[in-house]
Structure formats: structure tokens, C-alpha cells
Design a protein that fits this description.
Order of helices and strands: EEHEHEHEHHHEHHEEHHHHEEHH
Oligomer: single chain
Helix content: 40-55%
Number of domains: 3
Radius of gyration: 21 Å
CATH architecture of the largest domain: 3-Layer(aba) Sandwich
Number of strands: 10
CATH topology of the largest domain: Rossmann fold
CATH superfamily of the largest domain: HUPs
Shape: globular
Bound molecules: iron/sulfur cluster, zinc ion
Number of helices: 14
Largest sheet: 6 strands, mixed
Length: 339
């Protein structure tokens, strides 16, 4: 049995890089120190904030909500609201909502659940079926990611949030980094920093990732030790996501060569600095979607483009040339003729 390097009690965690072992009490202290250091290092929060915590109901986001709730008890100017996006995935979301409600009620945190159905008129399950019928080339996770990011920003703003905290941990970040290298998406890599959404667009809510330097196994242990660990339910669309293969590969590398994940993170941070020097990437001005008015990389946002291609949004006819320039496949008869 391994004992805690600090007090000699049985250890619950061993940091394979430093070789230090921690008992429950000292692991929680180590975790707290590490997250607080990340928050300070990247200047994530000010003295007065309404922090909207994006919660999926999974272990990481429940841990983040629990952690920030307790941290906020020591910061008088902070208010916390939990936000869950209900995509409408049968057999999956209902279960995670139960865990979400259990934890928010236990902590006494205000919360909001915003659904795809309520905002877009359709659940993700319905959207995936419509996309298949129309032979659109997108995977379920593409719709899910775009619509979820769109709603997180919009609803966080509607709730009066000043900052949106997401539970991406170090593992998530380096997986996304590798996925974007494979896809040659350098414009997305530049946005993988610990603080994003910093733009002058009045509708953009700044996003922070307090678990940016925390390993997934550490957030998992935090959730177990705090009795937050949810019932395991896997999203039925997960097997279609390349992320799971990359996750397995990176875990295998970490097992053989401890420290691989931190090396990848350091590589990402250096690459972001280089990319910031490339004008076309760094000065990508945030535009306003001509249809919905939300912040967007192009004249029309990705969420509106998907809705047009799915046939659930009729674009005004004056926008057609712009959509054609963006390569949007406009379904026949879908143009709104009203002036
Ligand atoms: Fe959405 Fe894909 Fe995650 Fe399922 S696996 S919740 S579809 S991003
Ligand atoms: Zn839009």
C-alpha cells in the first residue's frame, strides 16, 4: 500500500510525475491549490462576477460546479448560476438531468435548463434524423457542438452572466488539440487557450476553463471524494466521435511516457503564441450573424447555416448571395420571400 507523502495515511492518489502520494485530505488540498493557481495564472475571474457554470451533468462539470460554489463562499462579489443545455438525446439526457438537479439542490445553487427543443424547435435526435434524410454530411456531434456553444453564450448572456466557466480538463484540451491538428484547423487551435471569447463583441461572454491544467483522473477523483460521481450513461452518439479514438491513443502514450499530456499542453500554449502573430488568424474580427444577431465568425453563424440546411429556417432572400458565397446548401423552396 502507498502512503501519503505528507502525513503517512493511506494514499488515494499518486502523482506519477512528481512521485508524490496523497491521502484524501491532502489530495483535496493539492487539487484546490492547483485549480486556484490556474485561475490566478490566467486571470480568469475578477472581484465581482456572475459566473455561469456550464454543467453537462457529467463528473467534470459537477466537480466544477461544486468547486466554484465553495470557492465563491469565500469571495463576496461572486454569484454562481448553473446552466445545463438539454440537447434532447433520448436515454441519455434524462439521466444526467437527475444528477444535475441532485447536485444543484444539494448545494443550493440557482440553475437554468435550456433545451434545443425550446430554442430551435427540435431535439438533437430529431435534428440527426432530418440531417440523414437530407443527406447532410455532418455527424451528430457537429450539430450538438455548434448548437450547444450557441446556446451557452446566448443563455449565459440572458441570465446576466459576466463569465462562462466550462469544465474542460487537460485531457479534453489536448484531445481537441490533436483533433484540430488532424483536421488542419489552426483557426480553432488559436481558440483553445484557458480564456477565450475575449472580443469586443457586446454579445460575447468571456469563457474560462478553471480545470485547464487538471488531469481527468484528478477531476474524477475529486467527484468521487465529494460524492458527486454521476450514474454512468454514455451518449448514444459518442461512438461516432473521433475524440474517443484519440483519447485512447493519448492515454496509452501517457501510460508509457508519463508527462505526455502536460507536454502536449505546453506545445499547444506555444503554438497559440505563434498563431497569434499570424494576422489572418489572430485578427479574425467577430462579426454579427445577419440572421440571428449572435456573434459569428462569418456573416451568418454556423447555427443558422445548419438550420437553413436542415430546412428549419428560411433565410431572407437578400442573404442568399452571401450564403452561396459561404457554400451553404440551400434546400429548394426554403427562401423567405417576405420583405
Ligand atoms: Fe453531443 Fe456528441 Fe457529446 Fe453526444 S457525444 S453529447 S452528440 S457532442
Ligand atoms: Zn445566426
Amino acid at each position: 500500500m502507498v502512503n501519503c507523502s505528507i502525513c503517512g495515511r493511506p494514499a488515494v492518489y499518486v502523482n506519477r510525475i512528481s512521485g508524490k502520494a496523497y491521502c484524501k485530505k491532502h489530495f483535496l488540498e493539492y487539487f484546490d491549490k492547483k485549480v486556484r493557481r490556474t485561475i490566478r495564472k490566467y486571470k480568469m475571474f475578477g472581484k465581482k462576477e456572475h459566473i455561469i457554470v456550464a454543467v453537462s451533468g457529467g463528473k467534470d462539470s459537477l466537480s466544477l460546479l461544486h468547486y466554484l460554489h465553495h470557492l465563491a463562499e469565500r469571495v463576496p462579489g461572486w454569484r454562481i448560476t448553473a446552466l445545463l443545455i438539454d440537447e434532447g438525446i433520448k436515454g441519455y439526457r434524462e439521466e444526467t438531468i437527475k444528477d444535475f438537479k441532485r447536485v444543484t439542490e444539494q448545494l443550493g445553487v440557482e440553475y437554468k435548463i435550456a433545451g434545443f427543443k425550446e430554442y430551435f424547435g427540435y431535439t438533437l435526435d430529431e435534428i440527426v434524423l432530418m440531417g440523414k434524410e437530407r443527406k447532410l454530411p455532418y455527424q451528430p456531434c457537429s450539430y450538438c457542438g455548434v448548437f450547444r456553444r450557441y446556446l451557452l453564450n446566448r443563455v449565459a448572456r440572458e441570465l446576466g452572466g459576466t463569465v462562462l466557466a466550462t469544465a474542460h480538463n487537460l485531457d479534453d484540451i489536448v484531445q481537441t488539440y490533436v483533433m484540430n491538428i488532424i483536421n488542419n484547423s489552426w483557426d480553432k487551435i488559436i481558440r483553445l487557450g484557458p480564456v477565450s471569447g475575449v472580443s469586443n463583441h457586446p454579445k460575447f461572454i468571456r469563457r474560462v476553463k478553471p480545470f485547464y491544467e487538471i488531469l481527468e483522473k484528478e477531476t474524477t477523483l475529486y467527484s468521487i471524494l465529494n460524492n458527486l460521481y454521476p450514474k454512468f450513461v454514455e451518449c448514444p452518439y459518442a461512438p461516432f466521435n473521433i475524440r474517443w479514438t484519440i483519447r485512447r491513443m493519448i492515454n496509452e502514450l501517457e501510460e508509457k511516457y508519463p508527462g505526455t499530456k502536460y507536454s502536449l499542453l505546453r506545445s499547444l500554449l506555444s503554438i497559440i503564441e505563434y498563431l497569434k502573430k499570424i494576422p489572418e488568424l489572430s485578427k479574425g474580427e467577430v462579426k454579427t450573424c445577419m440572421i440571428c444577431g449572435e456573434p459569428s465568425a462569418h456573416e451568418v453563424c454556423r447555427a443558422c447555416i445548419y438550420r437553413i440546411e436542415l430546412g428549419i429556417l428560411k433565410p431572407p432572400k437578400e442573404i442568399i448571395p452571401i450564403l452561396e458565397k459561404l457554400g451553404v446548401k440551400i434546400p429548394s423552396g426554403a427562401v423567405d420571400q417576405t420583405d
